[in-house]
Amino acid sequence: MDMPLWRWSATQLASAIRNKEITSREAVTACLDRIASINPELNAVVSVQADDALAAADLADHMVAAGTTLGPLHGVPVTTKINVDQAGLPTTNGIVAFKDNIAKDDAPVVANLRRAGAVIIGRTNTPAFSMRWFTDNELHGRTLNPWRPDRTPGGSSGGAAVAAATGMCAIAHGNDGGGSIRYPAYCTGTVGLRPSFGRVPAFNGTAPSERQLSLQLISVQGAITRNVADARLALAAMAAPDPRDPWHVAMPLEGPRRDHPGVAVCLDPAGVGIAPEVEAAVRKAAAILHRAGYEVSWRDPPDVAAAAKAWNDFAQGEARLTLSAQIEQHGDALARRAFALMMARTPELDVPSLMQLSAARATYLRRWQAFMQEHPLVLCPVAMETALPYGVDIESEASVDRLYRSHVFLFATAYLGLPSISVPTGVHEGIPIGVQIVGPRFREDLVLDAAAAVEHAAAEAPPLLSS
């Protein structure tokens, strides 16, 4: 294959390593060299484990030579995000006070990547407390979008998305509590898969206490990749059971086959306004799926605006109670400003409202599940405009309202715990653009199949950045 190994997909690398066409050391070295070349400018990978990665690659190559049974990601270079535990390294979450917060054990998703044979080469950046849609913090600095530095690379998995987009790794681990996988993928022209709630196990032993209830029910672990096939491969590796997560459900990765299930296409059911280029991308994807044989109809799923508001009032309302003191004590100026503006639009959460918001999740999910009996897939915007200018979330209450209006589909689907994917469809004014596909619980296979059809036909989708 006449291109450098850092450009190869995870699927290609895994196959070539398994078949002894290349070595894991060669693949890992290519990505480490790529990090050394471009990361100083972009600041996506904030901790590089070169020696450990090369030792792991050598072990992977020895296993291939010995004929050992190999995992699906054997020898493939990946990154992890600095807000999950990786044994022997700090879980900083972008916070200066946590720079020595050393993990004793791997988080489940990290352990699953290792068991699948992946070689972890570095850790990617996130905003302080992983609370922004812009990746910047006092400890590690700002991550730049390689397409347009004046635009956000997304957050909180902005470092992961930039690392994947530029070939610093084949698969980038991320997590998503309100769009933190899908939005960075959208901003960087990559594929971001948010699995179903309960699909990929999660736990951080470095955390001082259990996560707030909303995060337990909403936040998920997943991957950012350069194509849909790699997203499917990453999901299979990450989804292995782990007893430390009481919410994990060991469901099959493939459900009953449905040839070209119905797709509901929706543009702006919340009435917040949609940019013309975003509408054009959704219409383009709808036409692609129609040509591929999907039954496409223009139908709005229920309660999008209400579910998005419930996400904010539940997740951010709890954050006021659980994180305010930590952010005031340990947060940098950016985190404190962003949090204050979030709280300005979030009602005070008392016990009755907490009960109502946690219960309402079942109401909205029931309505979506009934809707999905006829329309198993929903095609919609990732965001209502392209990647936002840097700093929108810290400028003013009006600019934060703009962000929340743009992210209405991200918030609603996170609140419901449904699997969804961001897949690129092209470039608009120098910045990637794409669409979101949402599916029923534990039917990532349907979501991935539809995303692959869009990816295959969207000829102008962003290429892997080479400069």
Automatic annotation (TrEMBL):
The membrane spanning regions, by residue number, are none
Q: Which Pfam families match?
A: Amidase (PF01425)
Domain Amidase spans what residues? 26-448
Tell me which Gene3D superfamilies the record gives: Amidase signature (AS) domain (3.90.1300.10)
Q: Which residues form a coiled coil?
A: none
State the family named in the UniProt similarity comment for this chain: Belongs to the amidase family.
| PANTHER family noted in UniProt | GLUTAMYL-TRNA(GLN) AMIDOTRANSFERASE SUBUNIT A, MITOCHONDRIAL, TRANSAMIDASE
- Protein's recorded name: Amidase
Q: Which organism is it from?
A: Bradyrhizobium denitrificans
